[in-house]
Amino acid sequence: RVRNIGHLVFSCLTLVNYHQSIQIVLGANNVRLLDLNVGFGEGGLYLYGARDIFVGQCVFHDNANFGVVFNNYTSNVLVRDSTSERNAAFDGGGFEADFSVSNVTLFRCDAIDNAGDGFDLRVDQLVLNECRAINNTNGIHLWRNAHVQNTIVHDNLESGVILDRLVGGSPVHDLVNVTVAGRHSEAGIAVREGVAASISNTISVGG
Fold first, then answer.
1. What's the CA gap between 60 and 42, in Å, rounded?
2. What tens-digit pLDDT sequence spans the chain (207 residues)?
3. Among candidates 97, 87, 90, which has minimal Cα distance to 128?
4. Which residues, in sequence order, are CB contacts of 89 under 8 Å at separation 6+?
5. How far is CA 132 from CA 33, 38, 129, 135, in A?
C-alpha cells in the first residue's frame, strides 16, 4: 500500500496469490506502475484518493473481485497498453470507477473475459482510445462525460456499449470510429433517457 507519498516508480514486478490488491491511496501522487503482472488475488489495482498516476504495460488478471478500480476523487490518471482480464466478481469488472473520479485516459487498454463489465466508468472527463472490450457482461458502460474513439467491442453477454447517466446528470457521450459486433443479448449500443449522444463513423452489428 502506498499512502500520502509521491514520486515513486514500481517496475517489472510479478504479484500473485496475495490477499489484497496494489493500493495507491489518500494523497499518493506522481506514481508510475510499469510492466506489472498482478493476479490470483482479491483485486488488481485500487486507486483511492490518488492523483497523477501512470500505469503502463501492466496485466491484472484472475482476481476474485476486480481488475482495476478508481475511487474517492482520484484524478489525472493515464493507463496505456494494459489489460484487465478474467476477473471473477460479477459486480466488479475490468476497469471501474465511481462518480467522484475525473480526468482519466485509457489508451490501448483491453478488458477481456471479465464476469462483470469490461469498462464501468462513472468518470468525468473520460477518454477511451484504441481500447477493446471482449466477452464481458457489458462491454463499455459510461455514466458521465466521455469520449470513446477507435475502439472495438465484441461478443459481450448483454450490451456492447451503454451510454448512461447518474441521477440528475445530463452527460455528453461521444463515440467516434467504434465497432460493436458479435453476439450480445441486448443492444449493441444502448442510449439511456436524458443522455446527449454523438455517434459518428461507428458500426453496430450482430445480436
1. 11
2. 888 899 999 999 999 998 888 999 999 999 999 999 999 999 999 999 999 999 999 999 999 999 999 999 999 999 999 999 999 977 778 999 999 999 999 999 999 999 999 999 999 999 999 999 999 999 999 999 999 999 999 999 999 999 999 999 999 999 999 999 998 999 999 999 999 999 999 999 987
3. 97
4. 64, 65, 66, 115, 116
5. 21, 20, 9, 10
DSSP 106-161: EES-EEES-SSEEEEE--EEEEEES-EEESSSSSEEE-SSEEEEEEEEE--SS-SE
* Dist CA 196 CA 28 (whole Å): 35
Reading the block at residue 142, the C-alpha cell is 459510461
Yes or no: say if 65 and 86 are a contact pair by the CB < 8 Å rule.
no
